[in-house]
Amino acid sequence: MGDSPWSGLAGRAKVKVETGVALEAANACSAAIEIFKGCQNLIRDHGLNNYGADALGGSEVDAGPHLRTKFITEGTQAKDLLGRYIDSLEDLVTMFKAAGESYTAADGDSADSLAGLKGQLKEVKVEPAARDLQGQVDNAGEYKPENFDDGNHNYDIGTAQAPAPTGAAEAEPVGVRMPVRAAENMSWRDLYDLGQRLSWAEVAGDAPIWEAMAQAVHGAAYDLQHKLGEITADRWQSEGGDAAFAAIGKFGTQAMTASDSFTLMQSNLEYTANWLYATKVCMPIETEDKCDDDLDENRERYQRHYVDGVRNTEQLFPAVAEPAAPEAPVTPPTDENTNNNENTNNGNDNTENNNGGSNAGGGNSGGGGNSGGGGNSSGGQQSVTPAGLGGQNAESAAAAMEQRAGAEGAGSGASTGQTGSTGQTGSTGSAIGSTGSSSGGSSDMSSMLSSVMSAVSSAVSGLTQALPSLATALQQVSATDAGTGLPDLTQLGTLFEQYPDLAEVLSASPEVSELIAANPSLAPLAELLGIEVATDAEAAERPAGSAAAQTTETAAGQAFPRASLPDFSNLLSGIEEVIAPVTGMVAESLAAEAPAVTFQTPVATFEEPGEAVDAGSLAHARPEADA
User: Fold this and answer.
1) Which residues pair with 298 in a beta bridge?
2) Which of 21, 37, 384, 531 is deepest in the core (most CB within 10 A)?
3) Overall pTM > 0.90
4) pLDDT in tens, 598-614
């Protein structure tokens, strides 16, 4: 129970069924469960379809083992099929009990009568015991082959006639046919030995059991058809359960098809017993041939009875008749007014609910580093951040930026609310960089790493597929806790292992080398890329005004050997000194690719703790390269 397509349907589709009708349907399903379980017991107790390979001809004629396997498979499939019917019926009983219980009285219904019906409904068993069907087997009697003559030898016995499927049952399609030894390859002794091995009794003995099962399932199917058929549209209520309602009307019919498939199995066993018997009684009874003409005649009998019999039997195994189930998912309808942000912005057309202020503004660690309220595609705003570049390659990003820059209603670059071309204004964001414990340090780190992304975009045009992952890795570094100063380079290391060419291109990029030389906080990146960083001794030998010397001075004398993780404790205090040249370099790079783009990310204004912050001061364009 609980494994069928009907499991939990009453709750999912909120099914209600008139209580009296639900009671009749539940009883019919419970009774059918008893019968299907009884059939399973017959298959198990009698070992149906389990015959020896020699009894079916043996490996000497090739077909014997294959016939054995096929018969056993059919018996197992039937037992499993009955199990699936039982699962479905148990879930249907559960559904009808719940649906009848939830039904409320209509006009003219007696409250006492309804309460009595609901009381009976509770007594219906979901998992009843199996019904004993041995009496039906005994009534079916035993089967004797056609032309049976108490086993007397008969060279002229008639050929067994293959039956045709009856009722709604269909035979399984035959793909590759079973191998069977050709008649011309059979010697006299081969024919004699075949006659000694064959046995029809076991096959004939199972036919009445299949007949009894077919009749029992027929009765259950008939009852289901009529009781479930009483569940008409005016007696059924559900939300999204139309497919289930239609399948209920077909359940009895499909169960009847299963009954017909058992009848076809019975007919196939009877036919197989007929040709096994005919082959046995017409094969030679002497071990040696007395006349060459007799060998040809026996080969012809072997062909007509055994070979043709195998060919017909393999075409009479019934197809599986699965229990009816809803043909579509059973789900209650959803509220059409629920807006799950499925609409997207195309060009300058803003949707009605586009989460215009969903980005947290200063809500990240350090405050003020994201795109505030206008973070979606409303209007013409475009924030140049690693996340913005992650979804497209360098060329398409530049084209998109240029297009957006010229669009009507382009934003002014402020993170305090972006006005789209249709007049929709995003929310302002909760903070502008003053609420973070590190006075905007993490935000500025994000801006600086954004510059790394911009600086190298032209150098990795051949590796654009790595850009989304690179953006994610840089964002992970930008989220470093400024209190510990320990950057998380896990994703960058994994990325460079995945894209070794990317690491090589970045290490050879002059822009990256200059950026790292001017900013000691990027020394971990230098380690990953294999770029040498000046030590104290090397810095002392260089002119005081050189970039390397400035780097050493800015880092307060800290050296970053390749084998150790640098101390980032002074990152926040030194970031103001390096941000201006970094942003200037990126501005120059971006101007060459998309001159009309206004860079939206706040990168300046470093107030001391306690100073008032002017929100308008954060809404400015990137400085020029010589700033």
Assistant:
1) none
2) 384
3) no
4) 444 444 444 444 444 44
